[in-house]
Amino acid sequence: MIKKALPSGCAVCGHQDDLFICSGCKALPYCGRDCQIADRPAHKAACSAIKKARNVMATEEQKLRHHPGDVMMSKDPFTSCVGHLLGGGGSKRATTYTSLPYLDVKDADMFESVERFCHPFFDLSHRTCVCLLKIRLLLELVRLEQSTDSLGPSPHPVISAMLKSPTPISSAVGASQAIMSSDSNTRKAMIDTLMKQIDALYEAVQKANEHFWYNLTDPEVDLDNMPSSCTMGSVGESQLAVGNNFFTWVKTSGALAFIITPSS
Ligand SMILES: [Zn+2]
Ligand SMILES: [Zn+2]
C-alpha cells in the first residue's frame, strides 16, 4: 500500500532545484548522482516494479488504441468514448480525474441509449451498474417533480412514496442545465425515456443471468465468499456481480425497492 505521496523534491535530501527523474521508473526525483546512488539499495525493488507496471500499461494502451471495435467497446476508445457517461467513464474515478479527455464525463448525455448494454455478451456487472445509474437519475427527476401530475394516472408505488420524502439533488443532476431548466412536459418525457431504458436493462439482466435480481435482494448471499471464476449465466457470475455492486445498490435510497416492488 502507498503510505505517502511521492516527494516534491529530491527523494533523499529534499533539495528542490536542478532535479532529474530516475530513468528506470520515471517517478522518483533526485538532485544529483550522489543522492541517486545512495538511494539505490532502498529504491531498487520499487524501481523495477514501477518500470514493469509502466511497460504493461503501455502495451495495454497500444492494444486499446489499435482495437478494431466490437460490441463491448468502440474503436479507439481514447477518442471515441470522450463524453460517454456509461461505457467506462461512469465510475467515480472518471468523474474525479477529468484531466484526460476520455475520462472527462462532464456534459455527457445522461439519457444515453442503453441498446449496447443490453447485448447478450455485455458484462453483467457493468450492465447492472448502468441500470442503477439510470434508476438514480430517474428517482432524482421524480424528486424534482415533487408532484404526481406528470407521472400519469398510476405511478410506480416506490415513486409515489419518494414524492413524500424529498432528498437533496446530486451535483450531476444539479449541474445539468437541460434538467434543471426543463419544464414539466420535458421532464415527463425524460422520465418516460428512463423508465423504458430501465425496463430494457432489467429484462436484459434477467435474460443474461436469471439469478442476479434474486441474489441482489436475497440477504442469504455470502458476500465474503465469492467464486474466483464463473461461466456466463451461472450462479457464480451472479454472486460476483452482486458482490461488486451490492453496497452501491443498498446506498442508493429507493433503488432496491424500485426493483423488487411490482408496478401497479
Ligand atoms: Zn538529493
Ligand atoms: Zn527508479
Compact summary:
With 264 residues, this protein is mostly helical. The chain is 50% helix and 2% strand.
Computed CA radius of gyration, to the nearest angstrom: 24 Å
Quote the average pLDDT.
78
Classification by helices and strands: mainly alpha
Spatial strand arrangement across the major sheet? 1-2
- Share of helical residues: 40-55%
The largest sheet is: 2 strands, antiparallel
| Count of DSSP H/I helices | 11
Give the total of domains: 3
Counting DSSP E segments of at least 2 residues, the number of strands comes to 2
Task: State the end-to-end CA separation.
Answer: 50 Å
Low-confidence stretches: 88-97
| Unique ligands | zinc ion
Sum up the overall morphology in one term.
Answer: elongated
Order of helices and strands: EEHHHHHHHHHHH
Organism: Penicillium diatomitis
Keywords: Metal-binding, Zinc, Zinc-finger
InterPro entries: Znf_MYND
Protein name: MYND-type domain-containing protein
Could you please describe the fold and organization of this structure?
This protein has 264 residues and is mainly alpha-helical. The chain has three domains: 1-64, no CATH class; 67-109, no CATH class; 115-260, no CATH class. It is built from eleven helices and two strands. A two-stranded antiparallel sheet has the order 1-2. A hairpin with a 7-residue loop joins strand 1 (20-21) and strand 2. Helix 4 packs antiparallel against helix 8 (184-208) and helix 4 packs parallel to helix 10 (235-251). The protein is elongated. One zinc ion (ZN) is lined by residues 22, 24-25, 28, 43, 47. One zinc ion binds next to loops.
